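#lab-general

N.A. 3:47 PM
ok so I finally got the sequence cleaned up, no stray characters, all 295 residues accounted for. can someone with queue access submit it? mine expired

B.Y. 3:52 PM
send it over

N.A. 3:53 PM
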Amino acid sequence: MQILDGKIVSQSVKDDLKSKVDLLKQQGKRLPFLAAVIVGNNGASETYVASKTKNCDDIGFLSTTLRFEETIPEDELIRVVEELNSDNKIDGILVQLPLPQHINNESIINTINPSKDVDGFHPMSTGKLIQGSPTFIPATPYGVMLMLAHYNIETNGKHAVVIGRSNIVGRPMSILLSQQIPNGNCTVTLCHSHTKNLKEICFQADIIIAALGKPGFLTADMVKENSVIIDVGISRVADESKKSGFTIKGDVDFENVASKSSYITPVPGGVGLMTIAALLKNTFNAYEMREANSK
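B.Y. 4:20 PM
back already:
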């Protein structure tokens, strides 16, 4: 069993990006610029955006975070996004989800200029992903693909089971694994809350991507020997022994599943770190496209 270490892989991605940014600085060129929008006081969102900002600083990206009260009207938030669209200094825009209930997520996402959609959530990005055209890939699935590539995990002809059908992880993950690309070419089964015989389906899998948000859901009796286990889940579970009052758990019963797997991601320290690394790659790609189009 080998741990798929998100810290090692994400650092490799960031080192590569930093070297490219250092070269831009030497050449006196404009630097990549990421703008984040956060609404309300969601603790997890604040932590995530703060991590993105720190990582931008570490590799030399410019960044800004725009914070708004939870009561901001939807039309006002749309105007904020439109202003970022028109700002030629901004390469990437991300609007941190979830948004308050009175704001329609789709309306905000659809307002983002597709050329700045570094989260990969815009319908145009999704359409291109389905067609296999170059586009921004949602950061978590993109991070998983980068991890598979780093560890040279064989996927060609393998049976991959994706548990979870969200537009952010499950669906794009299933598309990527099935495409005729490096670390793709899988036969993919996409499972969800209405899937029957889930245990039997998982037991047939060579690769399992668990992305449903239920701590410890994937147990040892659901996986076959030498399978590859990618745990996308991250949940706060009450734990009085911790100063914070909670501990972080993934969707996989790590202690019991690890011994049966050939490769497995830990939580924390796995896919979460790759999500941020992939977002940074998307931002740099957006920067390069904007620079190319401006010539």
